[in-house]
Design goal:
The complex is a heterotrimer of chains A (about 130), B (about 230) and C (about 525). Chain A has about 130 residues and is an all-alpha fold. Chain A contains three helices and no strands. Classes of the chains: A mainly alpha (about 130), B mainly alpha (about 230), C mainly alpha (about 525).
Chain lengths: ~130, ~230, ~525
Amino acid sequence: MSGHVSPKTTYYAIFGALMVLTAITVTIAFINLGPLNFPVALGIAILKATLVILFFMHVKHSSQLTKLICGTAFFFLFVLFGLTLSDYLSRGWFVAPGGTAAAGTRVTIGPPAPVAEPAGQTQTTTEPQTAPAR
Amino acid sequence: MPDIVASHADPGDHAHHPALQHHFQTLEQQQEASTLGMWIFLVTEVMFFGGLLMAYLVYRVWYPLAWSEGSLELDIRLGAFNTVVLIGSSLTMALAVRSAQTGAQKATVRWLLLTMALGLTFLVVKFFEYREKYLLHHIPGPNFQFEGPEAPHVQIFLSLYFGLTGLHALHMIVGFSILAVITWMAHRRRFSPEWHTPVELSGLYWHFVDIVWIFLFPLLYLVDRAHHLS
Amino acid sequence: MTTTVLPRVNYLNVRHGVASWLLTKDHKRIGIMYLVVVTIAFFLGGLFATGVRIELTTPQGDFVSADTYNRLFTMHGVFMVFFVLVPVVPAVLGNFVLPLMIGAKDVAFPRLNLLSWYVFVFGFIFTITAMVTGGVDTGWTFYTPYSSSASNSNVMLTGIGVFITGFSSILTGLNFMVTIHRMRAPGLTWFRLPLFVWALYATALVMILATPIIAITIGMMALERALGFGIFDPRLGGDPVLFQHLFWFYSHPAVYIMILPPMGVISEVIACFSRKNVFGYSFVAFSSLAIAVFGFLVWAHHLFVAGISPYSAMVFSFLSFAVAIPSAVKVFNWTATLYQGAIWWRAPMLWVFGFIGLFLIGGLTGLFLASLGLDVHLHDTYFVVAHFHYIMVGGAVMGFFAGLHYWWPKMTGRMYPNWAATTAALLVFFGFNLTFFPQFILGYLGMPRRYHAYSEEFQVLNVLSSAGASILAVGYTLIASYLVFSLFRGQAAGANPWRATGLEWKTESPPIPDNFTETPIVNEGAYKYSEREIEVA
């Protein structure tokens, strides 16, 4: 890994690119792209990070193992993000009779049994999370 | 049973480098091990920040308005300035490593000092940003004050803002201290083209800290500058 | 049995005095030091379990208050999970044996190794402090908002203790990974490695990727508790389930940290005591990696009834079924290893048989819990408690004892009396089943966990369980006794009392400080047992 010595011009060029990308990301932030603002900003950040990783951290000239390690870190990060968001983004897709949206709820077939309830509170199996509906 | 053929007796290798530790066979093996170790450490750091980022992502999805309001409370000029400063410090760090690789001892020291100066600049700006937040009662907790119906959710945004940038600043302080040690070592001519591993490893760490900020800047400062949500 | 003389200079006697231990860089000494701390933690965890089981002999909550009971099971969990199960095989046996197995003088970063022990002890001290100043009552799972807002117990102290200890795990994993990549002896290619090394590698992968998440999660919980930062606070619109997601993102892979190394031990011991190569070596090796990777994809099966979306739950349920497959591959391969082997009934092998049967039951009952419909009924009942104790005690702890009894002669140069070891193994096996099998039935019948009082009809099974626990205690005490006894009066073991393959058996018992007088060169695979070998008593 310590073998390859990059020329100074490479470093200056990458720095220049990073400055340009920073300017772009700030400028675009003021333009209304609606839902695209977030992915665009993230995409530019990913590009910048990639440049730092490949050139400043010499990964481009490093061993396969180093590249694998880099990839592994991001892979598991995306596992965390992806699978957790799979919960959050799919909440509310399913609403059981009685109003709950959660997994693991007993659902009865047929009309709910009449129950004497105080003060007009609806009796349901719980709405466990307190998040406001999105 | 595995056929064991005795190898020649271990180095009493008289030419071995003073930095070679006795449980390694060669300096190259030691350097590869050290570098691998630093990369693996950086993987743990990615996951460490990852937890906070996960919380950020979930709540950004849930509370886009609050995210917009909270982000607009941050000073984009200071954030952008800090971004330039930190990326600049990555450049100077890379040049410091290069100087160490080529044995340019004085240049190594100068580039390292410049890196430290830029890092310090970043931290000073951060201090002023935090101070302003403190004065505006934007620090989450019992003294938090914010106008509007989104206030509770903005508090979550700001909790994550302080969590993420605070953790980042902590890493910068540690990095700064490490660089101080490395700079001293460079000053004392401890490094050579054959062995300058501490400089390389510090460089990797410093670049990582830079990369974290490359993500934090748009995630925290650039959420809704076009005001299409609020 | 031949008596051989202990080598004159070995890692134990090369230097004397407390300082020579506390400042050592020798992985073998560090392994022993971990063993000491883990044993203390095991004793403490057992003490809490005793409190729990005494309370549960009667249906009424009459031994301790509900509040105290909460502290008892919490501290039991905290000590057992973080200070016993996670470190016991990697940091004790792994530290000792790994460099020997790969023909190295030490791990890649010996000073980091010592640091990780100190970090471990430091975290342990924090947690013990939390214990003696009142304990924690949140459950070892620290769920918010109880832990971050409502609980008035020592959450912060315990959280800090666990946070610190996590770094010990990370450093050990880092060290092992670099060691395995870079310190192997000449000729020792990946597919010539003993399977214990593969297991440690997979474990290191999990330690490195998962542990930082629990660290930051505890950090967030602590910030919420201490400074009022709202991240999981429902009053601010936060989601307590997010804490659960983050907590289990570590804690599920953590259980693979706990089981992978013992599985590696089983591979080593079963080969030696069947006098046979492990069947399907590469399948077993890859299954370790598969378990490590798949183990990251299943965590939300702990959240099935917490309020996650049913679609997400289905995905996690499917993945939880999938993760059982590589474990099953191992069990099949071990069984095939036994087939037409020459079984040598010694203590390590008894633990192996115990492991395979009990891990099987534990693993299969995990599938019951992975099934969404069943989990609705079984979640938070004693069925879950029984399931994970079958894996953790029936699996991991027995795997540890297999390894301890296998490598004890190497570590100490002494042999323990086989009759005592056999008795202890049988006692533990019997006591374990008596303790935990009734709990499957209790869970099925609906007895909830973490309650200090229960319905009358559950009493008989609870009494059986508590009786089993007392037998377990006797068994463990017996093990400690004869092992300590062996240090003073045990027969000298010699370099290779089990006539096992493996580089660690090529050097003396106890090994010299640098492990080998000359670096070995390897030119064949592991487990080259001659099939016509007949065991000699």
